[in-house]
Amino acid sequence: MKPIFLSGSLLLLVACTPTRPTTPQDTQVRALLEQARQAQAETLAPIEYRFAEKKLGLWQQAMEERDRARAALLLEQAALDAHLALTKSRAARAVQQMNQVNDRVRKLEKQLDQLQGELQ
Asked: Which one has a higher pLDDT value, 22 or 8?
C-alpha cells in the first residue's frame, strides 16, 4: 500500500507544479529572441528587445489565465518586436561594418595621395 501512497503523493506534486505553457508559435518567438540576443539586440536594439521579452511574459500570464484572444495578440506582438530587434541589430552591425570599410578606404586614399606626391 505504501507504493500507492507514494505514487499518489508524487502525482499530486506533479499536478500542483506550475508548468510553462508552450506552443509552436511560442517556440518560434523564443528562437527569434535568441537570434536577436546573439545579434547583440540587448545593446543595439534594447527597447524592442525588452518589449519582446515583456510581451512574451504577458503572453504566458494570459495563457495561464486562459485568455486565448489576449494571449494570441501578445504572442504576435512579441514576435514582431523580436523580429524588429533582430532586424535593427543586423542593420546597426551593417552600418558599423560599412563605417569600418569607409575608414579603411579613406586611409588607403590618403596613402595613395602620399605616394603620388612622392612620385612627382
From this structure: 22
Q: Within 13 Å of residue 59, how many CA atoms lie on the same side as its CB?
A: 23
pLDDT score of 10 = 38
CA dist list (Å): 45 to 13, 42, 49, 52: 41, 6, 6, 11
pTM of the predicted protein model: 0.72
Task: Give the residue extent of every domain in the chain.
Answer: 21-91
pLDDT at 62: 96
What are the phi and psi torsion angles at 68 (to 5°)?
-65, -40
Radius of gyration for the alpha carbons in the chain, expressed in angstroms and rounded = 26
Put residue 67 in one of left, alpha, beta given phi > 0 → left and psi -120 to 50 → alpha.
beta
**Residue 1: its pLDDT value, please?**
44
**Three-state DSSP class for residue 115:** helix
Q: Where are the alpha helices (DSSP H) in 17-67?
A: 24-38, 41-44, 46-64
Q: Report the distance separating Cα 54 and Cα 60, nearest Å.
A: 10
